[in-house]
Amino acid sequence: MKKIARPSDGVGTVISDCFDFPKDSGLTNRLKRIAPSVVRAEASYIECAEHGQLHTISSSENVDGVVTSDEMTKVYEQKFSNIKGPGRRYYDKLMAAPALGRCPLCDIGTVSTLDHYLPKKQFPAFAVTPANLVPSCRDCNLGQKRAEAPKSAETAPLHPYFDDVETAVWLKVNLYVSGDSLVPRYGVVKPDAWDNVLYRRTLHHMELYELYKLYGSHAAEEISGRVRVWRSSYGESRAKQLKEQFSLDARSYEKVSLNSWKATLFRALFSQSDTVCRWLEMFPGDTP
Ligand SMILES: [Zn+2]
Fold first, then answer.
1. Residue 107 region, left (φ>0) first, then alpha (ψ -120 to 50), else beta?
2. What's the CA-to-centroid distance between 174 and ligand 1, angstroms?
């Protein structure tokens, strides 16, 4: 998970552009009635998110019994995400926030949609609240992954606007030889500075978005693609040469993202270079 800067626009600004349906004065009037509530709800959301307490917010099928979740979805779809909607500039701003257009939830996919951290169907008060709208790739926003709201602190996925897990190494990968392959298996290690809740949330995040499998598949492809380069060094200095190269690669990828699958892979190649060298000797392949 990659942290991204919190949205600079509050829901009050969004409301001033999006709570207006000229052809439906009834809905417009009801939206005006709930506006103060939606602004208050945003403050409460931020307070909860800062303390990992979003699971304590109660779900509701409407806002104040005045506007239904279907109507708030209409506001989101017609006024906020619609390319011609008055709120589209806020939508575009949120979508453009992640560096390189990379999905902050998986750190692999390309941003293509906004994910409601608290689903808009159950939490209509946050349907157009920027702090609740996380840019994500299609895979991370699919199916059951985010259809349900977190039920406990431990099962709340990491929130890219509020959770910072980039100051310590927590992603690990173990490399082992199976058949003629060097197999990467990803896992999470708890940094000393973390409490158990953050550790469990990170484990949950990895499982929810199926990141062990995703990272493992990318790493396996990287190993297959690099193996000929690694085999091109041989003789007594091979171990030393490879170790130096792995260290350089690891430090280089860590500069981009400390806990990316790639930085983690090269850290493991460096620390398990003995295993890598034994594997290269067992299955010398077609080069040099
Ligand atoms: Zn993603």
1. left
2. 23
Q: Which 3 state secondary structure label does DSSP give 148? A: coil
Tokens 């992603």 belong to residue: 171
CA 80 to ligand 1 centroid distance, Å:
22
- From start to end of the chain, where are the E strands? 62-63, 67-68, 113-116, 133-136, 171-178, 181-188
> Residue 88 — φ and ψ, nearest 5°?
-60, -30
Taking the C-alpha atoms of residue 101 and residue 8, their distance in angstroms, rounded to an integer, is 18
Instruction: Give yes or no for a contact between 132 and 121, defined as CB atoms under 8 angstroms apart.
Output: no
Look over the chain and give the mean of its residue pLDDT values, rounded to a whole number. Answer: 94
Determine which helix (DSSP H) or strand (DSSP E) holds 137, and give its type and residue range.
none
Interstrand relation of 171-178 and 133-136 (parallel, antiparallel or unpaired): unpaired
Give the start-to-end residue ranges of the domains of the chain: 11-141, 171-282
Question: How many CA atoms does the CB half-sphere of 23 hold within 13 Å?
Answer: 1
From the CA of 264, how far away is ligand 1's center (Å)? 18
- For residues 168 and 174, what is the distance between their CA atoms, to the nearest angstrom? 18
Which residues 6+ apart lie within 8 Å of 273 measured at CB?
A: 239, 242, 243, 246
Around Cβ 255, how many Cβ atoms within 10 Å? 8
Please, which residues have CB within 8 angstroms of residue 39's CB and are 6 or more apart in sequence? 10, 11, 12, 15
Q: Which residues pair with 136 in a beta bridge?
A: 113
Which pLDDT score, from 0 to 100, does residue 144 have?
59
Tell me how far the alpha carbon of residue 105 lies from the centroid of ligand 1, in angstroms.
5
Render pLDDT for 141-172 as a digit per residue (tens, 0 to 9). Answer: 886 566 678 899 999 999 999 999 999 999 99
